[in-house]
């Protein structure tokens, strides 16, 4: 162990947005840089975890020592996650589009003069965090989700942890006065079954390193029992 205390642990991280095609040239997406998820994958790999990063489209370089699986849509992201199992820990940091467009548009939708504007019908995407959390075989022993909240941060995150069925929620206070949105710093609260930890205002990379250390402590304590 020593310098690579997570050696022997397998980790799965989701990151980035998903892109849901409208037609071959257009898509729906969430705003997400992917930075927090890439930082978490980097931190886990640096502690020695065998790390798979399932990433939606981002401008980021693959982190060293991490296996990156690039995907576009939520359904591809779920399939890539399932193909990466079994793992010991899954961290779902991706900003998955909640809906996709219910069309099979293999050709570009044309803007014809005088024609009515197209209407998009949306259907719900799979919830990757909830799906992984509720697996009956191959469920990771630790599943971590994220929650960006603008009010009643703890209350909403506690409810989300129960609803998704995950073990931990990293709750992110993104109310405008925090300046978190688009910034480099983050204030988070770690919600577990046993309660809440309030972390100080930290750079996103430091949040990732602290989370990786906290994951290490989880497996170290487990091995002691
Ligand atoms: O429900 P909400 O989107 O706020 O939940 C956020 C958490 O759920 C994040 O960890 C996110 O990665 C995960 N999620 C997911 N698949 C979805 C929607 C959210 O994995 N379709």
Summary keywords:
two-stranded antiparallel ribbon, 225 residues, binds cytidine-5'-monophosphate, 14 strands, 28% strand, 5 helices, alpha/beta
Overview of the structural elements:
This protein has 225 residues and is α/β, with parallel strands linked by helices. It is globular and about 70 Å long. The mean pLDDT is 93. Helix 1 packs across helix 5 (204-224). It is 28% helix and 28% strand. The chain has helices at residues 35-46, 74-84, 128-133, 153-164, 204-224; strands at residues 10-15, 19-23, 26-29, 50-55, 67-70, 89-92, 99-101, 122-124, 142-149, 168-173, 185-186, 188-192, 195-198, 202-203. The strands form four sheets. Strands 5-4-1-6-9-10-12-13 form an eight-stranded mixed beta sheet, with helices on both faces. A hairpin with a 2-residue loop joins strand 12 and strand 13. The structure holds cytidine-5'-monophosphate. Cytidine-5'-monophosphate binds next to helix 3 and strand 9.
Oligomer: single chain
Mean pLDDT, as a whole number? 93
What is the makeup of the main sheet?
A: 8 strands, mixed
Alpha plus pi helix count? 5
H/E element string? EEEHEEHEEEHEHEEEEEH
User: Which geometry do the CA atoms define?
Assistant: globular
Structural class: alpha/beta
What are the segments in which pLDDT stays under 50 over at least 5 consecutive residues? none
Give the strand tally: 14
Helical content class: 25-40%
Bound molecules: cytidine-5'-monophosphate
Strand content: 25-35%
Q: N-to-C terminal Cα separation, in Å? A: 18 Å
**Cα-atom Rg, whole angstroms?**
19 Å
Lateral strand order in the biggest sheet: 5-4-1-6-9-10-12-13
